[in-house]
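To illustrate the input format used throughout this study, we show a single complete record. The first block contains the structure-token representation of the backbone; no residue identities are included at this stage. The design step must infer an amino acid for every position from geometry alone.
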């Protein structure tokens, strides 16, 4: 490889990394603004100010409805897009836990922390979907992926012997999705004043009572 080619490759990689870092800042600022001011009360200029970038940069990462959905995905899982939650790096680390009780505790902690980051944002997403057909369609896709993620959780629980082989995967996934929803964090922590350790313990106990 020539020095010129190597320099071009380096610059290309650097630009890609810079673009990815800027994208993360915009999504994090979007999540913060939407949670603080609501979806309708947030402008692209607000996001730009909080992210420390120009409004044009935010527009290039938009539009606003996409920022809402992608900000939720990024805040919940650390990545955006349609990748299954069970396929990211955090999930791989959880699956590597051999002890079943420790696995359930860690999984509940992961979901609890994700819900803490997104429960207010989730409410804004639901509200925005009522007024915007494109957001509603995107929300349907997100919910379908969430159902699939929980079906995979049930498969994992059955493979570990935590849930019986005869467990109805569809019904059990729906029940777990309900129990472990962002709304549970909003009601128990934000509205009822539970501590996060108590909330994480409740999530783990809810799973164990459902299947053990």
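Output of the design step:
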């Amino acid at each position: 490889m020539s020095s010129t080619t190597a320099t071009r490759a380096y610059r290309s990689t650097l630009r890609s990394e810079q673009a990815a870092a800027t994208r993360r800042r915009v999504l994090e600022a979007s999540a913060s603004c939407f949670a603080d001011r609501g979806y309708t009360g947030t402008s692209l200029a607000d996001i730009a100010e909080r992210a420390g970038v120009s409004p044009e940069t935010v527009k290039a990462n938009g539009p606003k409805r996409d920022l809402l959905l992608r900000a939720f995905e990024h805040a919940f899982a650390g990545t955006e897009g349609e990748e299954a939650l069970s396929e990211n790096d955090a999930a791989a680390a959880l699956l590597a836990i051999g002890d079943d009780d420790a696995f359930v505790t860690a999984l509940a902690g992961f979901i609890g922390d994700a819900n803490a980051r997104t429960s207010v944002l989730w409410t804004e997403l639901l509200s925005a979907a009522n007024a915007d057909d494109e957001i509603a369609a995107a929300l349907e896709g997100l919910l379908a992926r969430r159902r699939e993620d929980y079906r995979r959780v049930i498969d994992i629980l059955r493979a570990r012997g935590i849930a019986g082989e005869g467990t109805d995967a569809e019904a059990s996934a729906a029940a777990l999705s309900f129990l472990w929803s962002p709304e549970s964090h909003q009601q128990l922590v934000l509205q009822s004043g539970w501590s996060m350790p108590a909330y994480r313990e409740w999530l783990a106990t809810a799973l164990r009572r459902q299947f053990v």
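Structural context for interpreting the output: The mean pLDDT is 89. The chain has ten helices and no strands.
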